[in-house]
């Protein structure tokens, strides 16, 4: 408690934007996890376009505003106000159809989403598209990532460069903490390089692949320049102005298919 108070005071001192803000102002921000929009969802990570549009409609009708990770970071780091009922709609993996179909809907409902892309997959699908190859589960190419970013409706963030395998960002048993740190920072650096080269952007929020993290991962990614991370624990979040630790391992609710928006949101946002 004493440490938190000291951090808050020190932070307010070095950050003039915090001056005059109520100390410890908080915001409840639920985060929803999506992956792909498909006509016939074949697993619990896909929903239909109509279901997603209904979600946007329900949230708008019930006074929610879909904000992005940068808004949460600005609230905590500089006290920039959030709307009264903020919610983050996060998409993992960068599946292509999600982008083309979503843009007009996001305009209609004045919503924004956060899209966490896998650097290596984006590289791979860019190459496949250049070769004119067909594929079953198309992911975004760098052209598509640029289009998404330039729309102002889709925030591009990191899902690692190439740590989406079965171990995710977790520490391997055989590696030392230093080796783990070096491997993770190396991956983050690779992601930073491709995002900067292809889109001119820097990511500051990491979505942990498969929700896997180790006790050291938040500290390491913070050293790698990240200000927030997302897990898969299905719980609410409360963030606090000045509490920069509170932006790590944020919880998210998976939005499953074959469920009405009303049922899903009444279950998760109560
Ligand atoms: Zn993923």
In short:
The protein is an alpha/beta fold and 270 residues long. It contains 9 helices and 12 strands.
Mean pLDDT over the full residue set? 91
Report the biggest beta sheet as strand number plus sense, adding barrel if it closes.
Answer: 6 strands, parallel
- What is the number of helices? 9
**How are helices and strands ordered from N to C?**
HEEEEHEHEHEHHEHEHEEEH
CATH architecture type: Alpha-Beta Barrel
Percent of residues in helices comes to 40-55%
The span between the termini is 29 Å
Percentage of β-strand residues = 15-25%
Total strands: the figure is 12
Basic shape: globular
CATH superfamily membership:
Glycoside hydrolase/deacetylase
CATH class assignment: Alpha Beta
> Can you tell me the residue ranges where pLDDT is under 50 for at least 5 consecutive residues?
none
Class by SSE composition: alpha/beta
Rg measurement, Å: 19 Å
Ligands (ions, cofactors included): zinc ion
- Report the CATH topology name: TIM Barrel
Task: Tally the structural domains.
Answer: 1
Fold topology:
Layout: H1 2-14, E1 26-28, E2 31-34, E3 36-37, E4 46-47, H2 49-61, E5 65-67, H3 69-78, E6 86-92, H4 96-108, E7 113-117, H5 119-130, H6 142-150, E8 154-158, H7 177-199, E9 205-207, H8 217-223, E10 228-230, E11 238-240, E12 253-254, H9 261-268
Parallel strand pairs: 2-6, 2-12, 3-4, 5-6, 6-7, 7-8, 9-10
Antiparallel strand pairs: 1-11
Helix pairs in contact: 7-8
Zinc ion (ZN) binds at residues 92-93, 159, 164, 209.
């Amino acid at each position: 408690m004493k440490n938190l108070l000291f951090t808050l005071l020190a932070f307010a001192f070095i950050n003039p934007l915090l001056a005059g803000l109520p100390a410890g102002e908080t915001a409840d921000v639920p985060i929803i996890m999506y992956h792909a929009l498909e006509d016939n969802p074949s697993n619990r990570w896909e929903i239909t376009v109509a279901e997603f549009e209904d979600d946007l409609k329900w949230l708008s009708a019930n006074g929610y505003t879909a904000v992005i990770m940068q808004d949460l970071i600005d609230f905590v780091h500089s006290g920039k106000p959030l709307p009264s009922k903020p919610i983050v709609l996060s998409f993992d993996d960068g599946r292509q159809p999600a982008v083309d179909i979503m843009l007009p809907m996001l305009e209609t409902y004045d919503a924004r989403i956060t899209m966490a892309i896998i650097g290596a997959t984006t590289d791979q699908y860019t190459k496949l598209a250049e070769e004119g190859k067909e594929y079953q589960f198309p992911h975004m190419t760098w052209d598509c990532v640029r289009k998404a970013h330039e729309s102002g409706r889709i925030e591009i963030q990191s899902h690692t460069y190439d740590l989406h395998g079965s171990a995710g960002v977790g520490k391997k048993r055989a590696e030392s903490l230093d080796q783990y740190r070096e491997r993770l920072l190396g991956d983050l650096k690779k992601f930073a390089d491709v995002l900067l080269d292809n889109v001119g952007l820097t990511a500051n929020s990491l979505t942990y692949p498969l929700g896997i993290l180790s006790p050291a991962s938040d500290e390491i990614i913070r050293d790698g320049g990240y200000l927030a991370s997302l897990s898969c624990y299905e719980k609410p979040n409360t963030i606090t102005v000045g509490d920069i630790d509170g932006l790590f391992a944020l919880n998210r609710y998976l939005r499953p298919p074959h469920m009405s928006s009303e049922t899903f949101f009444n279950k998760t946002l109560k």
